[in-house]
Write a structure and sequence with these properties.
By secondary structure, the protein is of the alpha+beta class. It has one domain: F-spondin domain (Immunoglobulin-like, Sandwich). Helix content is about 15%, strand content about 30%. The chain is built from five helices and eleven strands. Strands 1-4-3-6-7-9-10 form a seven-stranded antiparallel sheet, covered by helices on one side. The protein is globular. The N and C termini lie far apart (about 45 Å).
Amino acid sequence: MSRIPFVSGLLALALVPASMLIPSTRVGPKDRYEISITNVTRGQIMSPFVVATHDRRMTPVFTLGHAASDELVKLAEDGLPGPLMKQLQDNGHVREVAVVTGKAGPIMPGETVKVRLRAGDSLSLFSMLVTTNDAFTALNGVSLGKSVKREGLEFHASAYDAGSEANNEMGAFIPGPPFGNAFKRATNGAEGFVHVHAGIHGIADLVPAKHDWRNPVAVVTVHRVKH
């Protein structure tokens, strides 16, 4: 597969526009929630977020200590939202799912993006930290309950490692700026399971002073809104 620079190609396409919502075929509650996501890292750009509201019966997208699904791997390694969005769209427990982009496609440090979705019992969202091998941030089925109707909720999202690629920190395998090398995988030495990401250590081309972080990496707020 030919190489596509991350920001100018892969994220410019983003597979779907920010305003395109993919509703569940099920009829959900009349309430709608406004979900705000802020990138609170100093130097990590985030790929477009896949955001879904769903009921409590939905199986989590990933389980710590277990292998990541192919759909999650594609997001965590190359920032591709489409496969995971399709997986959620086809799930009967999902109320509504959207891909949410920033002003320039990716979500820059300090940038906040918002989306309104049909209410559900739980919330999941996923995005790649693009100047890494396979780091992503997520809320993996957090409960919303009745608190959203009263005063709203705030969640802090950590960074995880998909475990599908070795963290060699080599630019040849990094899709995000300044490298732009999507679709190249460093599988030799991959952990093989999802775990909390250990950050950037400066062992090759990534500079911790620019690209490292401390959890949380994103702040998410949920409020009830009128139609």
